[in-house]
Amino acid sequence: MFDSIRGFWKLPDLRNKILFTLAIIIVYRFGAAIPVPGVNVNILQQIFQKEQSGSILGLLNLLSGGALANFAIFSLGIMPYITASIIMQLLRVVIPKIDEWAKEGEAGERKITQWTRYLTLVLAVVESIGYTFLFQQQLKQAVASFTGFTSLNRFLIVITMVTGTVLIMWLGELITQRGIGNGMSIIITINILSAFAPAFLQIGRTNSVFLGVVLLTFLIMVVAVVFMEQGQRRVPVQYAKRVVGRKMYGGASTYIPLKLNSAGVIPIIFASSILLFPGQIARYFSGPVARFFQNILKPDSIFYISAFALLIIFFTYFYTAITFNPKDTADNLKKYGGFIPGVRPGRATTEYINHILTRLTLPGAIFLALLAIIPTIIFNSIDLQSAIRAFGGAAILIIVGVTLETVRQLESQLVMRHYEGFLK
């Protein structure tokens, strides 16, 4: 590993890409600390400390790198873009035109990216308006003398947050184009990592034994996620030989890599949002029904943990079925003269791939569920609710997945440059 790091640093172009990425990250973190105009940040941080565990605001604050608690210009973080990307993927099933764009190659991807940006802008406007009125209510409850934002303040806050979202998109694309790649993923990973140091310090002040339990749990989860991310089922594919003129083409053997976890972190985020949203709404109401939802949707309740696990399994199958189409894979194999040994092309190939994918998704879904609920059970048992978000399954899965992908990209660029030197 250290040899690879030295290899990255020795090559001037790779070194410049790494330094450029670090510069963009510094700019982003600087923007995550600058609050929007007309807001008392100290009171908002006190509100977040009360609601950090077991609230949807705590999850969004983690994914924004603490910018939401500061009500910073980057408060929305990268989530509007991520949400827009997921919506565009889901719309492929509903709108045939988007599916046609996805099959057009680079030109189609540019169209999808452009519409994703438009949708991100719309979501940013809606979310910024929602946060403005939500925090206004929170400040009214916390400070008796606070009468609310003026119309000018609301307008400035919304414009600032939407502009911050557009700027984040631009910074992510700069990292992808001129940096080390995976710009959006790197930004969300930096956001999560920024919560680690405060969480470690807080736990260390509470109890050093608890800190050891958290570190051990964290290391075990990282090792488990690495094994899961690397796990795949390789379906062998053989291409038929073709004679064109006096030359023979084809005859190569390859494989279709089916990952153990094709859905990534999306099922955990979906399940968390669905379970936390009703509980968050119930906090603003009183009465027996509101108290009932508040009790059963606590992160340490048996109902919450069981529902969380079942929803993760459901969304793993759901998202995998949307993002991976066995019929398209079978049609492409048939189109280019490929076949799976022992399986007839066409419908039989589709059913074979679908059968493998269904069986492969089950252990991946169960692993995701365990990854999400085991830290919750451990940290709740030792009364460390503050560690659930920072060291939860979603955070670890994002960090490990993005890190592995970034290292693979850097190593591929390193190998490519070694080949160039050999040819010269």
What does this structure look like?
This protein is mostly helical. It has two domains: 194 residues, SecY subunit domain (Preprotein translocase SecY subunit); 197 residues, Preprotein translocase SecY subunit. Helix content is 73%, strand content 6%. It has 18 helices and five strands.
Radius of gyration: 24 Å
Strand content: 5-15%
CATH evolutionary superfamily of the largest domain: SecY subunit domain
State the domain count.
2
CATH class of the largest domain: Mainly Alpha
The SSE string, one letter per element, is HHHHHHHHHHHEEEEHHHHEHHH
Mean pLDDT: 79
Q: Could you give the order of strands across the largest sheet?
A: 4-1-5
CATH fold category name of the largest domain: Preprotein translocase SecY subunit
Q: State the end-to-end CA separation.
A: 27 Å
Give the second-level CATH assignment, the architecture of the largest domain: Orthogonal Bundle
The count of helical stretches stands at: 18
**Given the C-alpha coordinates, what overall shape results?**
globular
Low-pLDDT segments, ≥5 res: 420-424
What key attributes describe this structure?
424 residues, Preprotein translocase SecY subunit, globular, three-stranded antiparallel beta sheet, mainly alpha, 5 strands
